Amino acid sequence: MAITVLIGNNFVESHNADPIATMAREIDTMTLSERLSNIETGYGQRLAGLEAKIDLILADRINSNKALDMVTDVMKLIIQIQKQNNELRTALQVLQNRVQSENIHYDTVASVLNSKVDIINSTLQNQIEVVNLDLHTSLQNKIDIFNTTVQNEISTINTNFQNEFGNIDSTLHYEIDIINTTLKNKIDIVKKEIGNINTTLQNESSKPVAFSTTLSNKIDVFIVNYKIIFDNVIINIGDGYNSSTGVFKVPYQGLYVFHFTIRSEFYFVGDLVVNGVIKRHNYADSRGRSSFRYNSASSMVILYLNENDKVWIQTSVPGKNLYRYNYPGFSGFKIA
């Protein structure tokens, strides 16, 4: 007879000697209570092995809540086995009583028990195989469905990503082309404007600017900040000087030289002013002289000026007797 035992996590069959027959032959050295205890121990080991295998199935293979139905079937099987085991205990107890009361031969008892053990063992093995097959088939089907679903989802995601990336890439390339075209056009415009400015600057820098003036009439008395109008224009290249206002307006940006001379028979302090800011003083004083009462003074300054800057000569303190004719004068010219 084949006996199923638990080795590791698997049930295997052994074709060794029948343990119940062996116990029957050892009746002289073993009591019936001891035999019943050994039988119970063997069934306990089978049940423990079945529970261990179920635990392994639960730990290694069942990863979904839907597999709880299969676990429930296995638990029902365990309950059935336990029930059969209890029935066997009852039967063994009855047989024990009958043996004790009627002196039934131990070989007959062993044969009956052995037959029942074979039936139970065969039934248990068949049910375990069915459960294993059902579990394996169900889990494999669910794994296949899950894998198929995951592959479909991945394929859909990849397709959507490729489509979205393609749209984004096309849009970006289109926008980049527009930006590059716009920038190129703006750069071309800026380059053209810079070229025009450079051309203008070169033309302007090459244009001469110069003026020279004198005073036609004597100024007897003047006050502080009195603007001297040199009304007699000798030269005015570039038309920067205004003989009506006495102001030189810079026509082109650049480096300029200015020179002004004063002649007084009393006292005169004059300043060269740029946009209201004094840049140079000039001083002539004839007071206390007994003969040749006129005194002259000249001053020169080099300034870098911007276009439309304004330059003029004005008094610093009250005075009188600024001489006329060609003695006083205001001149300037562009050198770079």
TrEMBL record:
Annotated Pfam families: C1q
Domain C1q residue range list: 204-336
Main location: secreted
Compartment(s) where it occurs, according to its Swiss-Prot or TrEMBL record: Secreted
Superkingdom as given in the UniProt entry: Eukaryota
Keyword set includes Secreted: yes
Keywords for this protein: Secreted, Signal
Protein name: C1q domain-containing protein
